[in-house]
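If I may wish for something, please sit down with the protein I am sending here and say whether tokens and residues agree:
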Amino acid sequence: MVAWQGRFRFPLYLRIWLAVVAAVAVLTIAFSYLWRLNADNQPPEREVVIRNEVGDILGQVMTRPVRVPGEGYEFQVAMNDGRNLVVQFPPRPRRPGEGPPGRSWFRGPTGLLWILIIAALAVAIGAYPIIRRLTQRLDDLRLGVERWGEGDLSTRIQEDGSDELAFLAQRFNHAAERVETLLKSHKSLLANASHELRSPLARIRMGVELIGPEVSPAFQTEIRRNIAELDQLIDEILLASRLDAKESDIGTVEALDLTGLAAEECARAGAELAPTGDGRPLIVRGVAKLLRRAIRNLLENARRYSRGPVSVELGREGGLAVMRVRDHGPGVPPAERERIFEPFYRLAGASELHGGVGLGLALVRSITQRHHGSVQCEDQEGGGACFVLRLPSETS
């Protein structure tokens, strides 16, 4: 997922819903502003004419009506004789049985404002479940892709509806099923091929042991070296296949002393060990045979290229147990310090006579990742390479 990995961004459904609410709010404010402008304007001038019974004009004026609360509208009219009269239009009389007019929020200049506010709330409340339903399917699709990308190849997305999202979910499920089938076939082929190769290897080894004295010892040694290399290749392919399958059982996870594991492998490889300065054990949780294999691969890789002694240093960095394997070889160019962890990758100029099958460092990375750790190659003063392995530690 990531993230949200997505996961620290503002959710899509909230952004769409807030966009709708903001649009309605802007519309409400605009209408309210226009209504207020209209309400604040004075009514237009009207001509008022007062005549007598024979039709003579007694008074005439252009004026604006004045609203008197409770009494209606009034007009001031200047008569011809100099007097001023007030012409009043009283409120509409109530019908029989009609009560006094109450104050309503929907009357007067603010009536439209309240209507717009209620309409905006109705749109906001009504739009939320619709938008959430649409974006929930997008969230399901995102979560499914994240799980599938993390290695859960059995992940499938529910295919609801008949729109573009349903079609996208259908195509994703189809692609995921094909990829899962291909990977299962690939792993099955590797496992079967590795198993079948062991039988002829055993026969070749037996034949070498039965070779007569006329064959030179150097030739026998070369055959044995090739057989050992094939046997190591098969073993590492099988281990890499199990590590790639996240659902596979890799062994019993337990609390282990990394110092003890490193000491055993250093004694086996003839490397120098520098334990932690405080003398306390470095406790990590993991599978003993896998961590021992990772340490062994790092030591064999260092011994293969080093022109001097190989040393191992143990320490702590925060909540991590750190192991550094140092050699005095030609080192690793900065541009290739990531590629050396790829399967079957060899540095330029490396010869097969050095030994190894190109999977040792790839297995180290796979093992550390399965233990929630990391491994990388760093610079070292005086030349050579320094491989740093970091694992979560239960002691600090």
